[in-house]
Amino acid sequence: MSDLDIQIPTAFDPFAEANAEDSGAGSKEYVHIRIQQRNGRKSLTTVQGLKKEFSYNKILKDLKKEFCCNGTVVQDPELGQVIQLQGDQRKNVSTFLVQAGIVKKEHIKIHGF
């Protein structure tokens, strides 16, 4: 029995990398595009994590014109400024941000469903 090396498995923390100081919901390196379900078929698309030097209102104006939807810029105490758009615009917004040169494709995270 002394010949066997028994390894006791250590506890695995699935949220360890989410709790790291350089990642999480307020991460500055990623742009998070999420969908929030409203009532019935209605939904909201939120864009969070854009750099502060960009004009959120100009980006919003172009997004609204491009996708024929309504939207607003909301000031959140934890997340800063967040762009909200009506409908499921996740793929549209991600391609728009990449084509406009605002964000690289590697720095976009799409969440939901």
Can you give a write-up of this model?
Belongs to the SUI1 family. GO terms for molecular function: mRNA binding; translation initiation factor activity. Probably involved in translation. This protein is 19% helix and 26% strand. By secondary structure, it is an alpha+beta fold. A five-stranded mixed β-sheet has the order 3-4-2-1-5, with helices on one face. It is elongated. The N and C termini lie far apart (51 Å). 17% of the residues are buried. Mean pLDDT is 84; it is low at 21-27.
Percent helix range: 10-25%
Number of helices: 2
Number of DSSP strands? 5
Biggest sheet: strands side by side, in what order?
A: 3-4-2-1-5
Distance between the termini: 51 Å
Q: Main β-sheet, in a few words?
A: 5 strands, mixed
Please provide the ordered H/E string of secondary-structure elements. Answer: EEHEEHE
Radius of gyration: 19 Å
Shape: elongated
Percentage of residues in DSSP E strands: 25-35%
Structural class estimated from helices and strands: alpha+beta
Q: Please tell me the overall pLDDT.
A: 84
Low-confidence residue ranges:
21-27
Task: Summarize it.
The protein is of the alpha+beta class. The chain has 2 helices and 5 strands, in the order ββαββαβ. The protein has a 5-stranded mixed β-sheet, covered by helices on one side.
